[in-house]
Design goal:
The chain is of the alpha/beta class. The protein starts with a strand and ends in a 30-residue tail after the last helix. It is built from 16 helices and 23 strands. Bound molecules: NADPH dihydro-nicotinamide-adenine-dinucleotide phosphate. NADPH dihydro-nicotinamide-adenine-dinucleotide phosphate (NDP) binds next to α7 and α8.
Length: 517
């Protein structure tokens, strides 16, 4: 009998109001291994009411930043204590190799909570109190209210932390709807937040279908902000739904990121880096370096080595520590990958390796696909559309200007890398790229202290760091007049009441407060 994972509501784990559940499948075997409570409209209403009450009347938004930070650090400690369990669950539910789940996922959750706690704690000492002539002005940063977070299946627990931590660190309450393929670690993270002593209604988790639970949440009048990571197509829909009550939105969407190999790079290192950029988590990464631009003078050598090393990668079950890459998340994603490989063939891209499913002994039902490398050009569908699977297109270029122009010829602008032995040259290329993050001689390194997000159709807003924290707050300017109380009527009020005396503040030509408009 498989375990059932329940919703996390204000007062703890609960069945869905409808009592309905759905299956969670292990992508390494294709078999059902858990049941999940399926949230519907009634559960969303209940969660929003509780989140609203916790925000409007509860202690959380009224606490000092350092008090919130203390609770978040406790949650981070609980994640650390449960690291082995969370890593295994991520491997089973999402097909993350156990190496990746242990080394990257859980560690990132802990560092995200800690980084946000640091920002929240500093907040108490940071109120700016600039003094203007004749007035006293200050800025106050307020939480937004109830936040809805909608996350994808590719990095379930990391994405949950990326949304929950800044939302609550900034004093909001949050309701997380995880992806239906991979809800389990998000539910566990919600449970650990409750265990850490966060007040009722501050963190709730509602697994359920995007088209039902997700849409209800995003369009709910009791929700003030939506933070979404997923496809650009659903991101568009989220913006439409959020427009009803002008909710604030942050969107982290698709990508088709370039990995640019300049001819002065350490080619041995760059080849490994390009492979890491695309085949990490079987290419199911929003920043996946799915287009490799390689300078013509080193193109043949680089391509030969890319192919050789791609063929040496071990594709296998997620729980096997020897696996370099695991399965893709679901049959539907495998179908998508196969469809794009077929398109690649049809449009004349040259298949250099992969392009098929491997047989993995004992795991015949798993959703495995070989690391696949095509050579092609940037106008091809496989170079323009997000495959979200282990498919790389290698494209030659002549000089740096051409590399930048081709890399920028995309509707996306999320990430990218430059591989070079000449730092000033690499920096020039990096600065020319229209993307939210560029790594020089590295890939996929996300630091929760620095902002992450996309240009163009890769998104709206940023996550992480102070910039990401401020996406969860309103900024209020409070102007306190000092003239009126001392001398009577304010000299700038331009209505037909006789003025009692000449203004005793700087004239309009000098700096100082002026009437609006
Ligand atoms: P989606 O964008 O469809 O799903 C992301 C999240 O949004 C899930 O929680 C999903 O719920 C939810 N959702 C779906 N439809 C709605 C809706 N109408 N209103 C509110 N929430 C909704 O991504 P998929 O998981 O289906 O993947 C499709 C493609 O998206 C991938 O092949 C890939 O190209 C891209 N993608 C990009 C990601 C990125 O990080 N940039 C991450 C994941 C996918 P549910 O799971 O229940 O459908």
């Amino acid at each position: 009998m498989s375990e059932t994972y329940r919703l996390i509501l204000a007062d703890g784990p609960a069945d869905a109001a409808s009592s309905e559940t759905f299956d969670s499948i292990d992508p390494s075997t294709g078999e059902v291994f858990a049941q999940v409570a399926k949230a519907g409209r009634e559960d969303v209403d209940r969660a929003v009411d509780a989140a609203r009450a916790a925000f409007d009347e509860g202690p959380w938004p009224r606490m000092k930043g350092r008090e919130r930070a203390a609770a978040m650090l406790k949650a981070a400690d609980l994640v650390k204590q449960n690291a082995a369990h969370l890593a295994e669950l991520e491997a089973r539910d999402a097909g993350h190799t156990i190496r990746m789940a242990k080394n990257a996922d859980v560690g990132m959750v802990i560092s995200t909570f800690r980084a946000v706690a640091e920002i929240a704690a500093r907040e108490d000492d940071e109120e700016a109190l600039p003094r203007g002539p004749g007035s006293y002005n200050y800025l106050r940063r307020d939480p937004l209210g109830v936040c809805a977070a909608i996350t994808p299946w590719n990095f379930p627990i990391q994405m949950a932390a990326w949304k929950i931590a800044p939302a609550i660190g900034a004093g909001n309450t949050v309701i997380l709807k995880p992806a239906s393929y991979t809800p389990l670690t998000s539910i566990e993270l919600g449970r650990l937040c409750l265990e850490a002593g966060l007040p009722e209604g501050v963190v709730q988790v509602l697994p359920g279908p995007g088209a039902a639970a997700g849409e209800t949440l995003v369009s709910h009048p009791g929700v003030d902000k939506v933070a979404f990571t997923g496809s650009t197509e659903v991101g568009r829909r989220i913006m439409q739904l959020a427009s009803g009550t002008i909710k604030k939105c942050t969107l982290e969407l698709g990508g088709k990121s370039p990995s640019i190999v300049l001819d002065d790079a350490d080619l041995d290192y760059a080849v490994d880096g390009v492979l890491w950029g695309i085949f990490f988590h079987s290419g199911q990464v929003c920043t996946a370096g799915s287009r490799a631009f390689v300078q013509r003078s080193v193109y043949e050598d680089v391509v030969a080595e890319l192919v050789k090393r791609a063929e040496e990668m071990q594709v296998g079950p997620a729980m096997d520590p020897a696996s370099d890459t695991g399965p893709v998340v679901a049959q539907s994603q495998l179908d998508t990958v196969e469809r794009y490989v077929e398109i690649g063939h049809q449009e004349g891209a040259k298949l250099l390796t992969g392009g098929e499913r491997p047989s993995v002994a004992g795991h015949e039902g798993g959703y495995f696909y070989r690391p696949t490398v095509f050579s092609g050009d940037n106008s091809m569908v496989i170079a323009q559309e997000e495959v979200f699977g282990p498919v790389l297109v290698v494209i030659p270029f002549e000089d740096d200007a051409e590399a930048v122009a081709q890399a920028n010829d995309s509707i996306y602008g999320l990430g990218g890398a430059v591989w070079s032995g000449n730092t000033p040259r690499a920096v020039k290329v990096a600065e020319g790229l229209r993307t939210g993050t560029v790594w020089i001689n590295d890939y996929h390194m996300i630091n929760p202290r620095y902002p992450f997000g996309g240009y163009k159709q890769s998104g709206l807003g940023r996550e992480h760091g102070r910039v990401g924290f401020d996406e969860y707050r309103e900024i209020k300017h409070i102007h306190v007049d000092l003239n009126g109380q001392v001398r009577g009527r304010h000299p700038w009020w331009d209505i037909s009441v006789p003025k009692r005396r000449e203004p005793d503040v700087p004239g309009p030509e000098t700096a100082g407060p002026k009437p609006a408009g």
